[in-house]
Amino acid sequence: MNKIIRYEDRLRLLWKLRRQGLKVRMHSYEYFIGDGKRFIGVLCIYPLWNQAVFHLTKEYKNNENEKWIKIIIEEIWRTLGNIRVYTR
């Protein structure tokens, strides 16, 4: 269980998402994510519970197979390790 996610790892996630073509702004353990045209949602990381919750906008909530959502979740797992990711 991760009790703390290092600042460097959070920055690494930020840059990996940006390299994928996403527009991302990080604030502590929250990431505001868009695709350049639309706002996708807010990713909140809770290190004490070893989980991340991705709050999607209505547009993306209706289509959870959207390619961006898959890319974001894969980058979270690659960068932060074994962390549970939920979408809402």
How would you portray this structure in words?
There is one protein chain. With 88 residues, the chain is an alpha+beta fold. The chain has a single domain (7-87), classed as Aminopeptidase (3-Layer(aba) Sandwich). The protein contains three helices and five strands. It has a five-stranded mixed beta sheet with strand order 1-2-3-4-5. Helix 1 (7-19) packs antiparallel against helix 3 (67-80).
Concise overview:
The chain is an alpha+beta fold and 88 residues long. The protein has helices at 7-19, 58-61, 67-80, and strands at residues 23-27, 30-34, 39-46, 51-56, 84-87.
CATH class label: Alpha Beta
Tally of individual helices: 3
Q: Please state roughly what percent of the residues sit in beta strands, choosing from under 5%, 5-15%, 15-25%, 25-35%, 35-45% or over 45%.
A: 25-35%
CATH architecture: 3-Layer(aba) Sandwich
Fraction of helical residues: 25-40%
What order do the helices and strands follow? HEEEEHHE
| Biggest sheet, spatial arrangement of strands | 1-2-3-4-5
Quick one: biggest sheet?
5 strands, mixed
CA gyration radius, whole angstroms:
12 Å
Q: Uncertain segments of ≥5 residues (pLDDT<50)?
A: none
The multimeric state of the shown protein is single chain
Mean pLDDT, to the nearest integer, reads 90
**Could you name the CATH topology?**
Aminopeptidase
Number of domains: 1
Overall structural class, as computed from helix and strand content, comes to: alpha+beta
Distance between the termini: 23 Å
General shape: globular
